[in-house]
């Protein structure tokens, strides 16, 4: 600690949906002594970084927004990336957060100074910040994952990850290879297919996909939303209720699985008439085991003459293309990786040191244990948003984020109100919570596939096994018996 640094009540790392929700919650509680540290030059997190053609949310706008900040200006039922970023900026402006955000301050390390009860945070820019509480709001999907294919470094064409889209390259007349066929790929492939000479989609496994049926809000809709805000709230609640149906896909409900699988197959067969392609695009695992995708444009794009879906697997990359495990060489000018993100090990790769200098790396070496996905024992006044086991696979993660922001704010208010140095979750509460989550996971469809971004080895580490309402109830009030106070 250095005497020339102000001691803040809280430091928030990250300015995406989680960080901004956290800041607004603090201000509403009357807590103004906080900073948001943002590594980039702008706010927005994943909605700042993902600018690929067709980037769009797969949760309806009315539900993919804060409950306390409905937005009457949505242009589409399912919003595009630019407007979601606009919505985040609107929230920063509307809640007076500009002066709380420090840009180009990337988290480097943090240590808890037990004697003082403060966190000391160092950034890669060489600055030091001090605060009583540290709140990590860095998200799960911000480190692009690129498979380590043999020879990929010798490819002479252009290559990039979908989350780092190269807008300077004109794809017109190019032979393009897309590696991956999940959430990002199904959005940008329809946007580029008419530009390219040929498009090869390298698919590891088929995905369950449902029609999206996106639609525009017209001026009349927006005027009505502005005049009658309850209409947006009604849309939010009805969307949430409908998404609750998808929750049953994650469990053992055979009726809903059979129903939605039939809807998905009908959607597939409507666009794909080629029997061989139809076979390639038919999943061989239960619906809900991995993320269910939404698109009206993907299947029609794959049916075009200049598109091939390749399921042979990639052996290696050459100077001018890709060689499959079957020995086929596909010549390419551009390779685009739509291979997702390193969604875990969460913060295991960060230098975070709690009581007695214990690192989070060593603490989570064998098991990523938390309490409510928000706190972890041995790291006082340390809070996580969108942490382990808090992702929703069936509805809007904003529901979870708001619950976490409320809970953390209650913790900070309790510390302040009782003039405490810190609070630290008890190990037995943490172990009980982790055990209960893991036991419930055994009955979920997610365990039925080997490879999934939901999993770390054989453990489902990303997802919440229950409904959002259950989590909201758990985080409504702080169970003081779960903590040690000092």
From TrEMBL:
<dbReference type="InterPro" id="IPR036188">
    <property type="entry name" value="FAD/NAD-bd_sf"/>
</dbReference>
<feature type="transmembrane region" description="Helical">
    <location>
        <begin position="7"/>
        <end position="26"/>
    </location>
</feature>
<keyword id="KW-0472">Membrane</keyword>
<keyword id="KW-1133">Transmembrane helix</keyword>
<keyword id="KW-0812">Transmembrane</keyword>
<dbReference type="InterPro" id="IPR051209">
    <property type="entry name" value="FAD-bind_Monooxygenase_sf"/>
</dbReference>
<dbReference type="Pfam" id="PF13738">
    <property type="entry name" value="Pyr_redox_3"/>
</dbReference>
<protein>
    <submittedName>
        <fullName>Predicted flavoprotein CzcO associated with the cation diffusion facilitator CzcD</fullName>
    </submittedName>
</protein>
């Amino acid at each position: 600690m250095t005497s020339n640094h102000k001691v803040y009540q809280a430091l928030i790392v990250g300015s995406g949906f989680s960080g901004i929700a956290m800041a607004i919650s603090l201000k509403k509680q009357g807590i103004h002594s906080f900073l948001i540290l943002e590594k980039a030059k702008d706010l927005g997190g994943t909605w700042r970084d993902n600018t690929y053609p067709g980037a769009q949310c797969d949760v309806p706008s009315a539900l993919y927004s804060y409950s306390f900040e409905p937005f009457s200006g949505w242009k589409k039922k399912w919003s595009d990336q630019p407007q979601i970023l606009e919505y985040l900026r609107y929230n920063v402006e509307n809640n007076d957060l500009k002066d709380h955000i420090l840009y180009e301050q990337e988290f480097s390390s943090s240590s808890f100074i037990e004697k003082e009860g403060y966190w000391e945070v160092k950034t890669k820019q060489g600055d030091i910040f001090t605060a009583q509480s540290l709140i990590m709001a860095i998200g799960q999907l911000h480190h692009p994952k690129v498979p380590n294919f043999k020879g990929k470094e010798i490819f002479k064409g252009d290559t990039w990850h979908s989350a780092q889209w190269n807008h300077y390259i004109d794809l017109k007349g190019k032979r393009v290879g897309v590696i991956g066929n999940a959430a990002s790929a199904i959005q940008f492939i329809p946007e580029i297919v008419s530009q390219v000479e040929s498009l090869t989609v390298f698919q590891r496994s088929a995905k369950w996909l449902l029609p999206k049926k996106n639609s525009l809000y017209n001026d009349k809709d927006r005027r009505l939303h502005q005049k009658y805000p309850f209409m947006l709230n009604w849309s939010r609640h009805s969307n949430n209720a409908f998404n609750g149906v998808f929750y049953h896909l994650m469990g053992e409900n055979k009726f809903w699985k059979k129903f939605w699988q039939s809807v998905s197959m009908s959607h597939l067969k409507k666009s794909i008439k080629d029997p061989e392609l139809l076979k390639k695009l038919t999943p061989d695992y239960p619906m809900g085991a991995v993320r269910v995708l939404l698109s009206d444009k993907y299947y029609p794009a794959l049916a075009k003459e200049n598109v091939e879906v390749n399921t042979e697997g990639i052996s290696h990359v050459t100077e001018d293309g890709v060689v499959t495990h079957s020995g086929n060489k596909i010549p390419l000018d551009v390779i685009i990786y739509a291979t997702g993100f390193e969604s875990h090990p969460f913060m295991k790769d960060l230098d975070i040191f709690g009581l007695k200098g214990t690192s989070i790396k060593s603490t989570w070496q064998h098991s990523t244990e938390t309490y409510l996905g928000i706190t972890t024992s041995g790291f006082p006044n340390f809070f996580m948003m969108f942490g382990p086991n808090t992702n929703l696979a069936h509805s809007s993660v904003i529901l979870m984020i708001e619950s976490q922001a409320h809970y953390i704010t209650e913790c900070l208010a309790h510390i302040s109100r009782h003039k405490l140095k810190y609070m630290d979750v008890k190990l037995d509460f943490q172990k009980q919570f982790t055990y209960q989550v893991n036991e419930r996971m055994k009955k979920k469809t997610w365990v039925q596939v080997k490879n999934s971004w939901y999993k770390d080895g054989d453990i489902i580490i990303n997802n919440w096994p229950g409904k959002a309402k259950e989590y909201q109830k758990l985080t409504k009030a702080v169970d003081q018996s779960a903590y040690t106070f000092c």
